[in-house]
Amino acid sequence: MALDRSAGRLARCIRCTRHERTLPIRTFTTTAPSRLETQETQASSEPPPPPAGATTDAPKPRLRDPNTVSTRAAEQQLIQHQRITPVGSRRRRAAIASTSNIPFSELPYQCFQEARAVLQADRKQKLEHIRVQRERIERFKAKDVAPQDEAHKEKKVADMRRRLEEQKILADINDPVVKRKFEDGEGDLNKPIYRLLADRQWRSYRRTLLLQRITQMNVVPDVLPAIDPVVSTALSFAGKRVQHGDFVDSRMSELAPSLQIQPYDKGKRLYTVVVVNPDVPNVQKDAFDYRCHFLASNIEISPTDTRVRLGLLGEEGQVILPWLPAYGQKGAPYQRMSMFVLEQAKSEGGGEFQTIDVAAVKAGGKYTQRHGFNLRSFVDKHLLKPVGVDLFRTKWDEGTAGVMQRAGIVGWDVEFKRKRVEPLPYKRMDSVRYR
Amino acid sequence: MAISPLSSSARVARAPSTATLSFLSSALRDLRVSPPAVSSFAQSRNASHQAQGRANGAKDGAGKRLGAKKTGGEYVIPGNILFKQRGTHWFPGDHAFMGRDHTIHAGVPGYVRYYRDPDRHPKRKYIGIVFEKDQILPQPAHAVRRRRLGMLAYQMPTTASEELTDDLVATDSPTTISALPNTIGLQSTTAISTTPPTANSAAAKAIRRSSRIMEGLGVTLRPGYQYRQPNHEIGQAAERKEAAAQAKGKTSRAYDEYKPGDRFAAWRKSGVRIARNNERRAMGRGKKGKK
């Protein structure tokens, strides 16, 4: 088919997100990618002997370095044969390949080394500040205060902690190695500096785009009154990324998606994920209803543990309403499937996140009704805080009838047509003159 | 004008007469750079002004019938014109839309509201539609939008697939359309295969079988939804006709089979062609033959 032929060319472009990706995009990691390690060991030692069945005539693929490949063909070979994504931009890789690989500390540029010395002195100073701040916090916490001043003391400790975090960032923000690692996608999100850089990157474009989508498509205020997203979300159906607000084929959205929730502040937390469709046509009311397509609570997320497979969550402790395929009946306007990430409330002391009693919610019955699900009420009842949002859209397509039949949803043979609006009378009935 | 008599008199080599001298002096006076000290009258242009036509801008054109066409609270239906304007004095609010020339139209049946919405824009004036008489605009911030479905649900017709299958001969071929894509029957019958048939698949076998069945016609569904013979079949049509004629001991060719390098055959063929052309010319089609 012509589509398959052209797909090969598309697959070459690794930045293109419209097609199925053979490899995941290089994202933030805590350790070096395992493939990379094996590749390095192979390169240093002898290449492994070919398997017994393989013919020796076939040309062996050349081992490529993901840091220096700079041609399309070489990149393709690296992806196909070694299953490694190239590091950074092509321009950067070409620059690395064409220059001698001297570490920063030995580069023969006097000005550069002077600048590094300044930065290192500054970093040393910041580290000293951090040490002093830590000691101050410890001393202050050990101090006894009157019971009426307890709140004041806690507030002051929190302030000192915040200043400490700021200093941790200031210590690293000017480090060229940090910048380079972040740009190579090797930043460790356990460290505050990389979390800050990732957050800045997200806010520079993708968050703005998300906000535009949810405001233009009126997810806010139709589903929730307002939202200030602080975690980024990435939605994918069967490994295919879906941009915020994109139309998804009903056959693709038949199975539950996987959601990547990336927080930019430290620590583990519990989230509730809910998918609400605010565009369910209701002919009796001549209006639209809400329908909940998915509801699960107590999902643990941390900056390095971000992926949630909505179909594989725990039946007892997490899922309240399992995934219902997204569908829109024929002729009906497109339906917005809005996904919200809600942060669960903290306990009284302010430390631990509270779990939602899933069994009690199921027994209550109010929020196990998919039709007419009121997210505003659910959020208020469980003291949830909306922190993330995502959106995709669905409409009638050739697979919708099958999807609805397989899911046992009635109404697959219903078609919506516009209601006739009676025209105004040509002349006013009760007046003498028309004008 | 003044120069030509001067030059003609200058060519004469006799003593100038008094008339000629006076003429010369007057001519020289004309050539003087500085104007004479005393002028008999001051030269000036007369006032002239285009008094008629559109030169000074049309002061009194026809009215363009702009302005509000529906008052606040009036019932309107979709497409009704609410306000005609030059530029955007008013903006479309809830359930209203702006037309090509900034005209505000109603998008839903309802009642007209003229309002301002400082949350949306501090200066703009909006025209919107509400569904009930007592509703007001703008809605409070963060409130759920008021929307109407404006549609009715109908049972989808499911008989279309049977009607269509009756007309077609080979229903098992995947290249034939067994159902319209938007009709819904049983899942097994309406599934239209989207993957290309491989060499050993049942679909590919069905294609080969169907092509054998329709050998005489050779018509299949080609790319671009064309029912026709494939190009290679069309190209082989002459050869096939000749083979059939040969089997009967005849030939379908006007000439013998072309052999490269057979100059004698070519000479005979050209002779036949020249004779036929001469004959055609002798028939005298129009003036071309006579000339």
Automatic annotation (TrEMBL), chain A:
InterPro entries: PEBP, PEBP-like_sf, PEBP_euk. Its main location: mitochondrion. It is found in: Mitochondrion. Residues 25-70 are annotated as: Disordered. GO terms for cellular component: mitochondrion. It holds the Pfam family PBP. Keywords: Mitochondrion. It comes from the Eukaryota. Gene3D superfamilies: 1.20.58.1180, PEBP-like. SUPFAM superfamilies: PEBP-like. Belongs to the phosphatidylethanolamine-binding protein family. Mitochondrion-specific ribosomal protein mL38 subfamily. Component of the mitochondrial ribosome (mitoribosome), a dedicated translation machinery responsible for the synthesis of mitochondrial genome-encoded proteins, including at least some of the essential transmembrane subunits of the mitochondrial respiratory chain. The mitoribosomes are attached to the mitochondrial inner membrane and translation products are cotranslationally integrated into the membrane. PANTHER family: PHOSPHATIDYLETHANOLAMINE-BINDING PROTEIN (PTHR11362), PHOSPHATIDYLETHANOLAMINE-BINDING PROTEIN 4 (PTHR11362:SF82). This is Large ribosomal subunit protein mL38. It comes from Oleoguttula mirabilis.
Automatic annotation (TrEMBL), chain B:
Residues 40-53 have a biased composition (Polar residues). The keyword Manganese does not apply. Residues 39-69 are annotated as: Disordered. InterPro entries: Ribosomal_bL27 (IPR001684). Pfam families: Ribosomal_L27. Belongs to the bacterial ribosomal protein bL27 family. This is Large ribosomal subunit protein bL27m. It comes from Oleoguttula mirabilis.
